[in-house]
Amino acid sequence: MTTFILLAILAYFLPSIIGHNKRSAAGIFLLNFFLGWTFIGWIVALLWACASDVPVPVAAPVVYSHVLAVPDGPGNYCSRCGNIRFPSARFCSVCGSPS
């Protein structure tokens, strides 16, 4: 009897177990917890848990010469070597070409 209860609890929280490492794990758990008793809520939680996470693009800062620089646009790149340069620089610090 206790084995059946444990298997029923495991089956009920299967969407939460599958989606435990997703960004929306809390939402999956809440949907599963509150609406999992309705078969449709359980199916929606399971589909949400099985769906892939879309990575969020993040502009990473680049460090050159112990100075933190975040590129603003295409004007901040060297036209010869493609490395990031400061807008006020007259020459590229990597290849030495004039801006």
Poorly predicted regions? none
The biggest beta sheet reads: 2 strands, antiparallel
Q: Give the neighbour order of strands across the main sheet.
A: 1-2
Please compute the radius of gyration using only Cα atoms. Answer: 26 Å
How many individual β-strands? Answer: 2
Q: What number of domains?
A: 2
N- and C-termini, Cα separation? 78 Å
Mass-distribution shape? rod-shaped
What percentage of residues falls in helices of 4 or more residues? 25-40%
Strand content: 5-15%
Helices and strands: which structural class? Answer: mainly alpha
Q: Give the SSE order as H and E letters.
A: HHHHEE
Helical element count?
Answer: 4
Mean pLDDT: 82
Word description of this protein:
The chain has 99 residues and is mainly alpha-helical. The protein has helices at 2-12, 14-18, 25-35, 39-50; strands at 62-64, 67-69. It folds into two domains: 2-50, no CATH class; 58-99, no CATH class. The protein is rod-shaped and about 80 Å long. It has four helices and two strands.
